[in-house]
Amino acid sequence: MTPKPPLISSIALTLAFVASAAGDPTIDASKSSIIATFRQENVPVDAPLKKFNGRIDYNAAQPNAAKAALEVDTGSLDLGSKDYDAEVRKKEWLDSATYPKASFISTSVKPGAAGHFDATGTLTMKGKTQTLTVPVTVTQAGNAMVFDGAFEISRAYFVLGSKEWEGEVDDKVKVRFHLVE
Predict the structure, then answer these.
(1) Of residues 91, 126, 112, the one with CA closest to residue 18
(2) Which DSSP category does 113 fall into?
């Protein structure tokens, strides 16, 4: 059976965001990744988002003052097939022509154990917004700060997909991010 183009949308990711680090607060997209994972016909599908940018302002001494903003190109979701990629850009899915960007903007950060924090912010995708709290792990890799985390979104909440996909593509989409600055 040929798999149908999943949406995932999720992308959401939009992700991903999250915040933290000193130094140059620009995400290095060439060393970073955002991957949306969903289940289609009970098979997990990983779909990377290829184009994104953002800023993270973080100082470990003042984590409550951290700020993060991330913008993802919804047309950059890569399902590994030009036909599937074209399908998820359509109006029923990501509607990339009308909504070319998804974004996450942090509104607060709650410090946790060393190297961990929860970032709360607003995810905006396809004209809808949702408040998310995302657990983030911060590590140092040489001179770079690395932020790793994951969160789930609902396809139904963001109106991603048509009725013909119900039962074939799960509602939940997990978005994982690895952001390097």
Answers:
(1) 112
(2) S
Taking 50 as the pLDDT cut, the residues of the chain under it are 1-24
Summarised one tens digit per residue, pLDDT across range 68-114 is: 999 999 999 999 999 999 999 999 999 999 999 999 999 999 998 88
- Predicted TM-score (pTM) of this structure: 0.84
175 bridge partner residues? 36, 151
* 11-180: CATH architecture: Beta Barrel (2.40)
Q: Which two tokens stand for residue 148?
A: 């790793």
Distance (Å, whole) CA 100 – CA 177:
20
**What is the residue whose two structure tokens read 């001179």?**
143
| Residue among 119, 154, 164, 148 at smallest CA distance from 10 | 154
Give the whole-angstrom CA distance, residue 38 versus residue 128.
20
Residue with tokens 């800023």: 55
Confidence at residue 11, expressed as pLDDT on a 0 to 100 scale: 34
Q: Cα 133–31–138 angle (5° rounding)?
A: 40
The Cα–Cα gap between 88 and 79 comes to 9
Per-domain residue ranges of the chain: 11-180
